[in-house]
Amino acid sequence: MFKIIHWMVVSRSQLLADLLDCRWPQEFLVKLAKVQPEDMADRLYQSQVSLVVMDLATVDLQKAYQLQRLIEREHAGIKVIFVHFPRQVDGRFLIHQSVTAGVFYADASLADISEGLGEILKGRSQIPATLQGNGADEAELDSDRLTIREREVLQALLSGSTNLDIANQLFVSESTIKTHLYRAFRKIGVSSRGQAIAWAQTHLHEVQL
User: Fold this and answer.
1) pLDDT digits over 181-199, tens only?
2) Is the distance from CB of 193 to CB of 178 less than 8 angstroms?
3) What parts of the sequence cross the membrane (predicted)?
4) For a designed S-S bond to 5, which of 30, 121, 131, 177 qualifies (C-beta 3.0 to 4.6 A apart)?
């Protein structure tokens, strides 16, 4: 008797979940659990999931980052794949070699994703080459390019400070903080505050103000 494999689809789209439910259980002999992002943490403790599929069309990148880090810390052995990965945003901070098994861009068809999953089940990672350059060496290089003030501003984001809060802490104007953030965002390849926070959580955890 074969062992049932459990996968989890994290998405706010019922349509996507239904499409996957129509195909993957028969194709891969798996049982799919469909959950909302805010319910994933609790559901992981209640099931024997081996693969989590995150739909980045409906899950915020910052939330996806937090959920994957949770898996990395507390659920060893579970792999993550991202579908609807955005091309126009640098989301390389989401890629963690120990957890991320596959990345599929928004224009990937269901057949493309299924083919990639077949390779993942054989132990082969399915991450585009363009996204594999975010290793430790590059992270260090990005960090080294930041000025001390830019590091301080990024670190302050981790505490939930607003631009005005940071300006008051550093005794400069709010417009100066915006300039530092703009320059820092360009250097580390992010385009939003949430992405910057996620990047800082990974790469600036040892920086002290």
Assistant:
1) 999 988 887 888 888 888 8
2) no
3) none
4) 30
